[in-house]
Amino acid sequence: MLEANNLAVEFAGRGRRARAVDGVNLSVGAGEIVALVGESGCGKTTLARTLLGLERPTSGEVRYDGSALSHRGRALKAYRRQVQLILQDPMGSLNPRQTVYEAVAEGPRIHGLPDEEQVVAEALSRAGLRPPERFFLRYPHELSGGQRQRVVIAGALALNPKVLIADEPVASLDASVRGEILALLLRLRNELGLSALVVTHDLGLAWNIADRVAVMYLGRIVESGPVEQILTAPQHPYTQALLSVLPESPDRIVLTGEPPDPTRIPTGCRFHPRCQLLASGKAAAAGIDTACHSEPLPILSSAADPQTACHLTLVDS
After folding, report:
1. What is the pairing mode between strands 307-308 and 220-226?
2. GO biological process annotations for this chain's record (predicted)?
3. Which residues are 61's β-sheet partners?
């Protein structure tokens, strides 16, 4: 349904260009939920914005249902009806001066959909706000956090999209409400056949909702595959470090430093300045430490099979 092909997005900086997305292949199939995970600053949100058509790629392309995304007005408007965004902060997403009805009706009005009231009522009902008429005249401050997020989801559903891109959809919600929203997304996938790309730093969320997971570091996918395989037997040291912070993990891996500056991407493996395999001497013992510092790794494809961009896995294979 949705695909990134060799996608790159650069931003001008002070004398250098920041490579926020640096060669990404990623696909989301029909009825599939893919989790895009990684720490803050790795390029997840820029990739999501590019897939939505909010950023123009420097190179590569976005494809929807087999056709390349056009950034021309009418084509882009039609595309955004099919691919909708759900943001993490419902209070920031909703206009405090708009009623729930006005918030959900905004999209259908822009796209000129008929039977507005019926469309709004059906969207609210699908999002779990029933009876929908009870919420028409309420304002965001009169709702709970979970109800506000359901209104945001209803606003996306009102356009009957095929793909949802959810950027940290439960990050701002209480723990007691998160499960409800995740269950809602799974139900919408099952009932409506929706596809979804869920952007998150929470691997626990990915485990609970995703079919596949793609791990992003410094603008590039470094590991991807079926969620059960990647999260139970991670091959990339960065994925291993991310998983180690989960409560059930026996050994905590502490990465040194912050993610590198995207204007100064390291040579060789882009993770090598923080890699625990290099720091512990395991890379040297395997004879790959020089390669880690100097030899670039191949860009992963968008295939569903497990893939890892690490010199150690190349040696093992």
Report:
1. antiparallel
2. peptide transport; transmembrane transport
3. 5
- Tens of pLDDT along 225-278? 999 999 999 999 999 999 988 777 778 887 877 777 899 999 999 999 999 999
Cα–Cα distance, 317 to 312 (Å, whole number): 9
What's the pLDDT at 316? 63
Cα atoms in the 13 Å half-sphere on the side-chain side of 240: 17
Strand 33-37 vs strand 212-217: parallel, antiparallel, or unpaired?
Answer: parallel
Neighbouring residues of 205: CB distance < 8 A, sequence distance ≥ 6: 35, 170, 178, 182, 198
Core vs surface per residue 269-295: b (16+ CB within 10 A) or e:
bbbbbbbbbbeeeebeeeebbebbbee
How many angstroms separate the first and last alpha carbons of the chain? 31
Superfamily of 1-95+164-172+195-316 according to CATH: P-loop containing nucleotide triphosphate hydrolases (3.40.50.300)
Distance CA 205, CA 232 (A): 14
Q: Where are the alpha helices (DSSP H) in 97-198?
A: 100-110, 116-126, 145-157, 175-192
Contact 260, 266 (CB under 8 A): yes
Question: If DSSP codes are grouped into helix, strand and coil, which group holds residue 25?
Answer: strand
Do residues 271 and 222 make contact, with C-beta atoms less than 8 angstroms apart?
yes
- C-alpha 167/C-alpha 84 separation (Å) is 11
pTM above 0.90, yes or no: yes
CB–CB of 4/52 below 8 Å? no
What does the pLDDT read at residue 298?
A: 94
Confidence check: pLDDT of 289 > 80: yes
**Which residue's entry shows tokens 């260009």?**
17
